Amino acid sequence: MDQTLDAILQKQLDTIQRIELFLDIYKCKEFVAADLNKLKEDSSEAAEKLSRTREYIETDRKDVCSQFIKIMQKMRRNELLMLHLWEVGPHSEAANAKPAQSDTPKSMPLKELQNDNPSKMHLTDYSKSPFATRSKSKDIHFYDFDAEITEEEFETIPKYLRGRMQLSELIQFLEKDVIKCFEEKYTLMYKHRKAVSNQHDLTAWKDYNSMQAKFPDHKFITQDDLLHKSGKALDKKSYAKLQMLRYLHILQEVRSEGTVYFLWIYSR
Which GO BP terms, alphabetically (predicted)? Predict the structure, then answer.
């Protein structure tokens, strides 16, 4: 019984102390309220900065890894090119030996193979190739617009942005609409002036080259380029896909003088 009374008395004493502490704080409310609010804002700002720093570090790590992979791919292509040039060059025994009579087709130098059927090349190589001087366009793909979206990267896109869209839909839009638009634009833009005979193409060629001065270090298309490519206005789903490509750091949207530009910023 005594223990029960002691517990009740102790509980009442604790309650009285809390009430007294509350009254003491309430009395100085006007002096500490501003400081407490400031402390709350600083805590919120610090948490936000910490989150941004964590996101930046993760993005930077992905960029470094992607740049390493890209460098390794270039080194591998150069290695294959050197081996091929060695095989068809003047140092090879086959080049010095007398060709035998055979029905087997004669192997062609790398340059001729590229001229006949170039599946892919860099824009800088294209601008110096015979295709840039020919009036007839050829369907050429460029390493400059290679992009890959993994399942893991797709899952990082916020759910509210992805909705029910599948990865295959986004990849199809990227390859069939966006990349194709880039390739068709720069196939024409990198042509020599004398090779552009069609008046419509000439007007587009002049517009492309004049607009490039705004972003000299980037490849880009405009919203109008996508409209002309698809032949219809972009719908809500297409805009969502463009937003996802921006989130994955494949495109960057820039608005200037009423024109919407999509810059190619992908790096792997």
Answer: cell division; chromosome segregation; mitotic cell cycle; regulation of microtubule polymerization or depolymerization
Structure tokens at 17: 């102390």
User: Per CATH, which fold does 144-264 belong to?
Assistant: Arc Repressor Mutant, subunit A (1.10.10)
Q: How far apart are CA 134 and CA 140, in angstroms?
A: 13
Residue 247 structure tokens: 């989130």
Interval 1-41: pLDDT, tens: 566 888 888 888 889 988 888 887 777 777 777 777 888 88
Question: What ranges do the domains of the chain cover?
Answer: 1-72, 144-264
CB atoms under 10 Å from CB of 66, counted, come to 15
CB atoms inside a 10 Å sphere around CB 179: 20
The H or E element containing residue 264 is: strand 259-264
Nearest to 129 by CA among 187, 72, 73: 187
Question: Residue 26, Cβ neighbours under 10 Å: how many?
Answer: 9
Q: Are 154 and 170 in contact (CB under 8 A)?
A: yes
Q: Are 231 and 141 in contact, with CB atoms under 8 Å apart?
A: no
Q: Are 172 and 158 in contact (CB under 8 A)?
A: no
Bridge partners for 254 per DSSP: 261
Q: H or E element: which one contains 261?
A: strand 259-264
Query: Could you tell me which of 118, 124, 130 has the C-alpha nearest to residue 144?
Result: 124
CA distance 38 to 28: 16
Instruction: Enter the pTM of the model.
Output: 0.56
Helix (H, G, I), strand (E, B) or coil at 213: coil
